[in-house]
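Example record used in the benchmark description.
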Amino acid sequence: MTQAQVNLQAQADVYQALLMAVNERAWLGGFVSRGYYPPAALQDASSSVHDKPAGDELWYWFGRFLGVAQ
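Model output (structure tokens):
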């Protein structure tokens, strides 16, 4: 069995592109980030963004979507 390579920057880049697309479309109200696992901050190949660069992208955009930029 082949193990998945961990590329945290690629995950963050995908989230950045997705969040920019959501921001540009008024008819799109959001999306769901599946697999968030709050009990443990893992730098693994899981889809969880907890304590990964992609999580920073969500933090950055969340306030902007609400109109209260941090």
